[in-house]
Amino acid sequence: MAAIGKDLKQISNPDFPYSSVQIERCLDPLAHAIYGLRKSSETVIVGIQGGQGTGKTTLASYLVSRLLTEGCHAVSFSIDDFYTTYDDRRFFAAQHSDNPFYQLPRGMPGTHRIAALYNTLSRLKSGGDVDLPVFDKSAYQGHGDISNCIEKVRGRQDFVIFEGWCIGMPVVTSDELLAICHRQNLQDFSPFPAHTHLDVVLAHLEQYQRLWGLIDFLTMLHPDSLFLHERWRLEQEKGLIARKGTGMPDAQVRDMFRHFLPFTCLCYEKLVPDLRIHINKEHGYYEMTSPKLL
Fold it and tell me: Is the pTM of this model over 0.85?
C-alpha cells in the first residue's frame, strides 16, 4: 500500500513488541493510511477490532505514539472502559441466571454503558472535552469494576483510537449465528449454544449500531487460527496477575474464550473492515489486506 501524505517518523519504544518486518509490512502502511485521514475541523474515530489477545490495546498505544510524534493530537481508549459496574453486572447475571453468556464476568453485549459511550464518542468527534473512565480488570478477582481514575481529554483531538473485541459487531439472528458456527466447525470444540440464550445476547446488538456509525475507519486484527485466542488470552491474564496480584483463574479464562468464540466468528465473517491485519501463531503481524477494495 502506498504511503499517504508525508513519511511518518519511526518510533523506538520497548513497550511495543513489533519487529522491523511487522512495521514495514503492516504498521507503516496502517499509520500512513490513518494519518491521511486527518481533518482540519473534525476528529477522526479509528476503530480497532479483534478477538481476545490479538493486541488491540498495544496497537492503539503504538498508533497514538506515532501520531503524537507527527504533531497530531491523539488519544486511545477501550470499549472495556465503559463496562457497567460490578454490582450492576451481578444484578444482570441474576436476572439471566439460566443464560451462560451472562454468567461470564463481563464482555457480552448488554454489559456496556452504551449511552455514556455514545455521548463520549460524539463529544470527542465534535472536539469537546471529556473525562474517560478507566476500568480495573483486576478488581473482584478478575471480574473487574470501574476505578476511581479518569483520563482527562481536553481540546480537539485529531484522532481517537477506539478499540474492543466487539466493535462493529452487526445485528444478526440466532439462526444466522449458528450457521456461522457450523461453517467454522465450532461443534468440534464445544456444544452449540441454545437459540434462546443467543436470542437474549443478540437482542442487545441493535443499540450498539449507533456507536459503530461514529467510526470513520475500521482495522481488524485477524489471527490465522481461532484457537490462538485462548492461548493469548491466558497469557494476558497471567500478565495481569503478575502486575496486580489478582485476576481470573485459567478455567474461567477458558470458559470466557469458549463463550466468546461464536461472536468472534461473527465479526470475522460478517464485518468488512477498511484494513485487515493477519496474525501468525507467533503473534506476528505478517500481512495486511484491504477487504473493501477486493
Answer: yes
Distance spanning both ends of the chain, measured CA to CA: 14
Report the alpha-carbon distance of residue 257 to residue 266 in Å, rounded: 14
Q: Are 154 and 129 in contact (CB under 8 A)?
A: yes
Q: 159 with 44: CB under 8 angstroms?
A: yes
Within a domain: 22 = no
User: Does some domain include residue 26?
Assistant: no
More confidently predicted of 252 and 35: 35
Domain span holding position 223: 41-293
**Number of domains the chain is built from:** 1
In a domain, residue 73? The reply is yes
Produce one character per residue of 215-240: b if its CB has 16 or more CB atoms within 10 Å, e if not: bbbbbbbbbeebebbbbbbbebbeeb
Percent of the chain with pLDDT over 90: 77
Mean pLDDT of 251-277: 93
Confirm whether 172 is domain-assigned. yes
Indicate which CATH number applies to the domain containing 157. Answer: 3.40.50.300
Separation between Cα atoms, residue 264 and residue 193, nearest integer Å: 14
